[in-house]
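Handout, page 2. Input:
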Amino acid sequence: MPSLGDRETFLQQVEEILDSGHFTNGGRFVQEFEKRVAEILEVKHCVAMCNATIALEITARALGLTGEVIVPSFTYIATANCLQWQEITPVFCDVDPETHNMDPAQVERLITPRTTGILGVHLWGRGCDVEALQQIATKWNLQLFFDASHAFGCTHNGKMIGGFGRAEVFSFNAAKFIHCFEGGVVATNDDVLANRIRKMQNFGFTKFDHTEYLGVNAKMIEISAAMGLTNLARMEYFEAINRRNFELYREHLKGIDGIEFLSYDENERNNLQYMVLMVDKARLGISRDTILNGLHAQNIIARSYFNPGCHRMEPYRSQSKYASIHLPVTDSLSDKVICLPTGAPISPTDVAYICSIIRFIVANRHTLMDSNVNQLKKSFAKVA
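Output:
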C-alpha cells in the first residue's frame, strides 16, 4: 500500500481545487510542488509532469539524442523504452555487482560513432559513479542524464541527487517513497534546457497561440500536485518508518546463511524505500523464486526486481542486435534479488510475520524446494 500524508489536509486541498476551477495547466498547487521539490533537491529548475516515463522521453528529446544511448539493463523497462519509443537504440550495459549501478568500466567500450548519450540509473536510491560517468561523457562529447526514480531525498558524496548531469528525472508513482498518485519531475540547473522541457510538456507552446517545439501533453494536474505536497509534509516521517523497517528486517533475518541485505552507506542519505534481499541458491539450498512463491502464497507482495534484465525482455530479446548480448552480472542479480514490502502501512508486526514466513521456507527447504505458489499454500495450511 502507498504511504499517505495527512488525509484531512489533502481533502481540504481538493476542495480548494474544485472551488477554483483550475484543474490543470500549471495551477497554484503544481507551481508550489515544483518550488518545494526544487528546494529539497537543491536545483534551480523542476518541471512537473504526468509521469516519469514521459519525463524521460521529453528530456531525451530536449537533449537532442539520436542514434544510440548507453543504459543499464538492470533497471525498470521504462528506462529503455523511453529511448526505443523515439527510435533511439538503447545499448545495454552491465552493472557493478556490489552497487548494482551501471559499471563505468563497461560503458566506454560500448561507445560507437552513433552514441549520443549515457542514461544512468541511481538504483535503490544509491548514487551512480557520477564522476566517472561525467568524465566519460565529457571525453566523448556525450549527453549525460539520469533516471533518479528511486532516489528522491537521497545523496551522492554528500550532495543531493538531482543536480547531476544535464538533468535528472524522478518518479512520483503511487509505489514510490513520495507519490502524487502518478507523476514525475525533471530537475536541472540548465536554464535553457529547463525552458525547452517546460515548453515540450505543453505542446510546445511559448505563447497562447504560438509553438516553438514539437510537444505533447505531459502536464501534471493539480490534484496530483496536492497529493505530492501532502506527502512531502511527512517526508521525514516516511523516511524514519523505512529505516525502522529496514533495521527490523535485518534483525529478524540475520544469521541465515545465503540471505543477505543490500547495504547502504551510512554517510549518505537514503530514503530506504527498497528492502533488497539477495538469495544465494548455492548456499541456501533453495532459489529466490521459492521464497518469492512462498510470500505470494501468503498474499505478501514481494517483487523480484529486475527479472529478467531489460535485454531479455520484449521487444529487445527478439531483435537481432540484442541476441548476442551477454551481461553476466545483470543475469546473476536477476536470479537473486527480492524486494520486501515497506513504507508507512507496514508495521513491526507485519515485518515479523513476513520474516517468519521466510524462516519457515528456509527451515523446510528440503521439502519445499522449487515449489510453486499453490503447493506452498498447501504446505502453510498444514501448519496453520
